[in-house]
Each structure stands twice: as structure tokens, then as C-alpha cells.
């Protein structure tokens, strides 16, 4: 889910003055200047809307980030683990009641759902009905910057799920709770009303959700209800994979090697869970009111216009059946060439399954298992070779959730590299608006942003290009771009979105430092060589011939683009690049020498 927004206050460098008096004075001057800049930037952040002050208090300091990393502050996932461990004996002693409840969240499927299977088995063991619940929380949608497209997809999925469960006599209770603080109380009240003594749900890995589930476990026990929270959204649960020194991985490549070995050595992680079995016949009459309840509408501020809803419904059919059909088609038709074609946005070569992973209509382990089964040439003697290019991409989901759990301050509007907090970002509204609308004068950037605004989705290579352009060429706060993506994406997932933006802004989990700056023109020529993607999404450039389409005012004469009303580039890339290098070095206190060097893609 979207980041937990908190305002950046005056965060000074953790480095203490040392050495000569002159050096100490320079360090002190830098810290004082940094503090002034941070205070100014805090005001700009507040005004820009980066920080959602209705929901979150001032942001933590760099020192507090270090306390999390040093173990001086408990990680939220450890708080939940502790709550489950300390209550385990008491929860196991609770006898089954008149029903068992499963709380759907981002796991909107019957197939291969860990908590749903456990709830069904528990209910069947004593012949009591299974009841399912889903809570629409407008404040959570707002706090997490959930897009209207994503909410619409969830509601359409719930329609499918409700009918599928009804065929098994399983009621799905869906209601809207206006105040997020009332959600847990309402769930426990319904459990008591139905006589349920056991509640199952799958774990979410953002800070708010981990803390919420820890409270639910304890509050449930106070009311005689055993709450069980399971891992389901990942293949390998966070915390299992560690370096030889016992630390958490902060780089993907060694983490992925450990991930592949673990999956190879523990094949049970890919074993599917069984869908729920049919309820006793008496459940239909007992829960007649729930069966007849219509689904609530989307909250007013998350409601799509009818035309847009119809458009997205056509592009993104909802439900787990559609997810499986897409997965099967991809594995059969595209998987073999995925590694060679995945970076080309004009090619229809990607799985287009991210919306289903995000909403939970498809389990990641289902996709991994199917891909590995299709990889007939794999050798079990060499675990890493079992995992092709697509599976490696799927593993990034696990990795970013692993990061979320062990560097929780990324949920609090803080970059993974928290020492980058002092970079001075710009908050130029007109420039940001041009980026949002796809009117920057950089064809590949404009094409990608228009795809996002039309489809509520963007090709992954293009996500990196437009993010690098915003953060590096325009020097606009990357969190504004992260927020805009979440407001528009139908597949919005906080961990993956935050991780991607951190990569592009060089503030995240990435061994490459800040001097990696994408050249939009070079990226365009490399990944959209014939300009098909650009011409599709920027019709005004349809008449520009050859390679001039990548840079109509630079490589071409610009006549066709100008006559069609296509804007000139809003910034000179060379200038933007040099300015970014200067600003990053300034923020890190590294002086201004050698600003022309670095990686230029």
C-alpha cells in the first residue's frame, strides 16, 4: 500500500565534527545550512501535499531510523510475531464456537489462500459454517492513497467472489466503516454476533497493518476470540533469509540467490492451499440477510465516472478466474521469450498480472509454480537455473516486502537511504503538472504518462524512465511522483511502488549510487526503436518519420511536431543531469567536484 506520509523536519547529518578546527567549523556550517534547508523544504512539502497530515504525525528523524536498524526500537513485524507467540497457548485453548470467520483483505480469491484454507478446515472439523468478511474503509483508502481504479477493481472482484462463495453456501459480509479506528471493533462485534471464536486473516506488511493485527490478536483474546494471522502474500516470508553474518539483505542479487535456494530446498512453500469446502445447508437460512445484501458503493472520493469504469472493466476484467486465464495464456504463449522482450513497451510481451497480484486474485506462488513447471529444461542440480527471467521479476515482490518489514521507516515517507533526506527537491507545480499530463516534450516520457492516465497502468521499463526524469531531470520530490502513481495505478502496491521510485531516485535499495541518470532520448531509442509506442500514445507525433520521433526538436527539424502542437522539451537533459549531480552531492555534503562524471544511460 501507499507510504505512510510524515513530514520531514530538520534532519542533520549524523556525522560529528572531528579533525582540525577549520574542518570542524566547515562541518558545523554544513549542518546548520542543512537544517535551514530542511526547514524550508518541510514547509514546501507541507504545501505540496506530499505529507498527509490528517493521518500521520511529523516524520521520524535520521536518529530514529538508526534506532530501528540497531535494534533499539522493535520492528512492527516483530511486535506482531511477539503478540502471536505470547498468546499462542491461550488461543489454542479456545474451543470452536458456532462459526469460523475469514477476513478478506488483499487476498480476494478462494484458490491457494492460506488463511481461508485454515478457516475452512477449522469450520469443517466441527461442522460449523464459515463466514467471510470484507471491510471497505474510506479513511484507509485515503491514508494509503489507493486509486479509484484500484477500489473499483476490488469491488468488481468482490461481486465475483460473493457469487462464487454463495454457490458453496458461504456468506460474504461486506460493509463500509467510515472511521478506520472502528474497523477492528466492528469485526470483533460481528464475530461475537455470529458466535465465532476463531478469526483468520492473511498478513499485510506495511507498518500500520502490522501494528493493527498485533492489536487485533490481543483484543480478540480479551473477548475470547482466537485470531490467527498467516503469511500468504509472499513466497518466502520476511525474516527467513539472512546473510552469513545473520543480517537482513539490502541488495537484491544475493537475496535472490538465497531465495532460489530456499525455494528449491523447501518446495512446500509452493504447495497450493485448497479452496474452502461447502458450508452446511443450514448456513443459507441462517445467514440469509448477508446473502441478500448488495455490495456497498465505492466511497464518493474513490468513485469512477461511468465511462471510465466501463473502459477499465474492459481492460481489466476482475476476479480470480480471469487471473488464472491470463496466467495460463502468458505461460503458454509468452513466457519463453519474456527475458528478451520484457523491456520493450510496444511489444505485448508482459504478463499484465500485476493488478491480480496486488488485489490478491492470484497468489504469487501459483505463478511461480506454474512457470517452473513449464520450464521443462530446468536442472534440479543447480537451483538458480530453475528460475527464469519472469520468476526473478516475481521475486522482486517478495524482496520489497522484505525491505518493508526490516526497514519500516520507508513506510513513513523516509527514503531507504535516510542520509538522502537532506537533498533539496523542487516543488514547481506547473512542471509537475506537465509531467502528470504527459506534456514534457520528451516523447517517451509523455507516451508513458498518457498510458498511465488512460489505462491506470504503465509498462515497467517506462515506470523507471518517467520516475528518473521527474527526480533527476526536473529535481521534483520523488515522493510526489510516488503519490501520483498510487493515485492512478490499478495495480498500486506500496512496497513495489516505493521500491521502484527509490531505485529511480537513487534513494532506495540499490547498489548503484545517485549518479545513475537515465537519458530519456537514449532510453527511447533503445527500447522503442521504431517509435511504435510513442506514436500510439502521442498521436501528434504520428507524422514524424524515422528516429526523429524520439527527439523531434533535436534530431529532426521539429516542423511536424511544432505544427501538430507538440511541446518543446521543458528542460535540457544535459543541464538537468548536471544540476541533479550537484544537488545530490550538496545534500550528501560531498562538495561539487566532478559533477560531470557518472553513469549516463
TrEMBL record:
Residue ranges annotated for the Photolyase/cryptochrome alpha/beta domain, each copy included: 98-235
Tree of life domain: Eukaryota
Cofactor comment text: Binds 1 FAD per subunit.
Keyword Flavoprotein attributed: yes
GO BP: circadian regulation of gene expression; entrainment of circadian clock by photoperiod; nucleobase-containing compound metabolic process; response to stress
Site (Electron transfer via tryptophanyl radical): 425, 478, 501
GO cellular component terms listed in the entry, alphabetical order: cytoplasm; nucleus
InterPro entries: Crypto/Photolyase_FAD-like_sf, Crypto/Photolyase_N_sf, Cryptochr/Photolyase_FAD-bd, Cryptochrome/DNA_photolyase_1, DNA_photolyase_1_CS_C, DNA_photolyase_N, Rossmann-like_a/b/a_fold
Region ranges (Disordered): 1-54
Residues where FAD binds: 338, 350-354, 390, 393-400, 491-493
UniProt GO MF annotations: deoxyribodipyrimidine photo-lyase activity; DNA binding; FAD binding
Family designation: Belongs to the DNA photolyase class-1 family.
Name this protein carries in UniProt: DNA photolyase phr1
The encoding gene: PHR1
Amino acid at each position: 500500500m501507499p507510504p505512510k506520509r510524515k513530514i520531514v523536519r530538520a534532519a542533520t547529518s549524523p556525522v560529528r565534527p572531528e579533525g582540525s578546527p577549520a574542518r570542524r567549523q566547515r562541518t558545523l556550517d554544513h549542518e546548520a545550512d542543512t537544517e535551514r534547508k530542511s526547514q524550508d523544504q518541510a514547509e514546501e512539502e507541507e504545501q505540496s501535499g506530499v505529507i498527509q497530515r490528517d493521518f500521520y504525525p511529523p516524520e521520524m528523524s535520521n536518529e530514529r531510523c538508526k534506532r530501528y536498524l540497531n535494534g533499539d526500537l522493535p520492528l512492527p513485524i516483530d511486535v506482531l510475531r511477539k503478540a502471536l507467540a505470547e498468546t499462542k497457548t491461550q488461543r489454542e485453548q479456545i474451543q470452536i464456537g458456532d462459526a469460523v470467520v475469514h477476513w478478506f483483505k488483499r487476498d480476494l480469491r478462494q484458490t491457494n489462500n492460506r488463511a481461508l484454507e485454515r478457516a475452512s478446515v477449522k469450520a469443517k472439523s466441527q461442522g460449523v459454517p464459515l463466514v467471510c468478511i470484507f471491510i471497505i474503509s474510506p479513511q484507509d483508502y485515503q491514508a494509503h492513497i489507493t486509486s479509484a481504479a484500484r477500489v473499483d477493481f476490488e469491488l468488481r472482484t468482490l461481486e465475483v467472489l460473493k457469487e462464487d462463495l454463495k454457490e458453496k453456501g458461504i456468506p460474504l459480509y461486506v460493509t463500509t466503516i467510515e472511521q478506520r479506528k472502528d474497523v477492528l471493533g466492528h469485526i470483533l462485534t460481528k464475530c461475537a454476533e455470529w458466535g465465532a471464536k476463531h478469526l483468520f486473516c492473511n498478513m499485510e506488511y506495511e507498518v500500520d497493518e502490522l501494528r493493527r493485527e498485533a492489536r487485533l490478536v490481543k483484543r480478540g483474546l480479551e473477548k475470547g476470540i482466537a485470531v490467527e494471522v498467516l503469511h500468504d502474500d509472499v513466497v518466502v516470508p520476511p525474516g527467513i533469509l539472512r546473510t552469513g553474518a545473520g543480517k537482513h539483505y539490502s541488495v537484491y542479487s544475493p537475496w535472490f540467490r538465497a531465495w532460489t535456494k530456499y525455494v528449491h530446498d523447501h518446495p512446500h512453500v509452493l504447495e497450493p492451499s485448497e479452496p474452502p469446502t461447502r458450508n452446511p445447508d443450514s448456513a443459507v437460512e441462517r445467514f440469509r440477510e448477508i446473502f441478500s445484501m448488495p455490495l456497498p458503493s465505492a466511497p464518493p472520493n474513490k468513485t469512477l465516472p461511468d465511462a471510465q469504469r466501463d473502459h477499465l472493466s474492459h481492460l481489466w476484467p476482475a476476479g480470480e478466474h480471469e487471473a488464472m486465464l491470463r496466467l495460463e495464456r502468458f505461460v503458454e504463449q509468452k513466457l519463453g521469450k519474456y527475458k528478451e522482450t520484457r523491456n520493450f513497451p510496444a511489444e505485448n510481451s508482459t504478463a499484465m498480472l500485476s493488478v491480480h497480484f496486488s488485489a490478491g486474485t492470484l497468489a504469487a506462488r501459483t505463478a511461480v509454480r506454474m512457470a517452473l513447471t513449464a520450464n521443462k529444461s530446468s536442472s534440479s542440480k543447480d537451483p538458480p537455473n530453475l528460475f527464469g527471467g519472469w520468476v526473478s521479476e516475481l521475486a522482486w515482490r517478495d524482496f520489497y516486502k522484505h525491505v518493508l518489514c526490516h526497514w519500516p521507516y520507508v513506510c513513513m515517507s523516509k527514503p531507504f537511504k535516510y542520509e538522502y533526506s537532506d537533498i533539496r527537491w523542487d516543488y514547481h507545480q506547473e512542471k509537475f503538472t506537465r509531467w502528470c499530463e504527459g506534456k514534457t516534450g520528451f516523447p517517451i516520457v509523455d507516451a508513458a504518462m498518457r498510458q498511465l492516465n488512460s489505462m491506470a497502468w504503465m509498462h515497467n521499463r517506462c515506470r523507471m524512465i518517467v520516475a528518473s526524469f521527474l527526480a533527476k531531470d526536473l529535481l521534483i520530490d520523488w515522493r510526489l511522483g510516488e503519490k501520483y502513481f498510487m493515485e492512478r495505478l490499478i495495480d498500486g502496491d506500496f512496497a513495489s511502488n516505493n521500491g521502484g521510485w527509490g531505485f529511480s531516485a537513487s534513494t532506495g535499495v540499490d547498489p548503484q549510487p545517485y549518479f545513475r541518470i537515465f537519458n530519456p532520448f537514449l532510453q527511447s531509442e533503445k527500447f522503442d526503436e521504431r517509435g511504435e509506442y510513442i506514436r500510439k500514445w502521442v498521436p501528434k507525433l504520428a507524422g514524424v518519420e524515422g528516429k526523429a520521433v524520439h527527439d523531434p526538436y533535436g534530431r529532426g527539424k521539429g516542423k511536424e511536431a511544432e505544427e501538430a502542437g507538440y511541446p518543446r522539451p521543458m528542460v535540457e537533459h544535459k543541464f538537468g543531469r548536471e544540476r541533479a549531480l550537484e544537488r545530490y552531492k550538496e545534500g550528501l555534503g560531498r562538495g561539487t567536484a566532478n559533477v560531470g562524471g557518472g553513469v549516463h544511460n
